[in-house]
Write a structure and sequence with these properties.
Layout: H1 26-34, H2 38-42, H3 49-58, E1 60-64, E2 67-74, E3 77-82, H4 83-89
Antiparallel strand pairs: 1-2, 2-3
Length: about 100
């Protein structure tokens, strides 16, 4: 897997405001604010570089029961990341309520 550089621009968040100078975009801002992706656009979690490095250094992609996932270890804790986990974490509101991550 190719390593990716950590660049500040990758972690920018959306500022869903409506300044007067951008009146033509107010309808788009309203749409994004009411969208199921609003939280994902505006959340700014603290991400520790060392945890990110450990995540990708130990990551393997596997498929179980037709579901692709990333299995890894960070700070001696096993983690499994699936599409469903990402949808729940970003509050995309289209993930099933009963399908939670189980420890491996």
């Amino acid at each position: 897997m190719a390593s990716m550089a950590f660049i500040d621009e990758h972690n920018e968040i959306a500022m869903l405001q409506k300044p007067k100078q951008a009146a033509g975009f107010h309808q788009i801002v309203d749409f994004l604010k009411s969208s199921h992706i609003a939280h994902a656009l505006t959340v700014s979690p603290t991400i520790f570089i060392e945890h990110q490095r450990q995540f990708w250094a130990n990551a393997t992609i596997v498929a179980e029961n037709g579901v692709q996932m990333i299995k890894t270890r960070v700070c001696d804790q096993s983690l499994t990341v699936t599409e469903e986990v990402i949808r729940i974490s970003l509050r995309l509101d289209d993930a099933s309520e009963n399908n939670w991550l189980e420890p491996i």
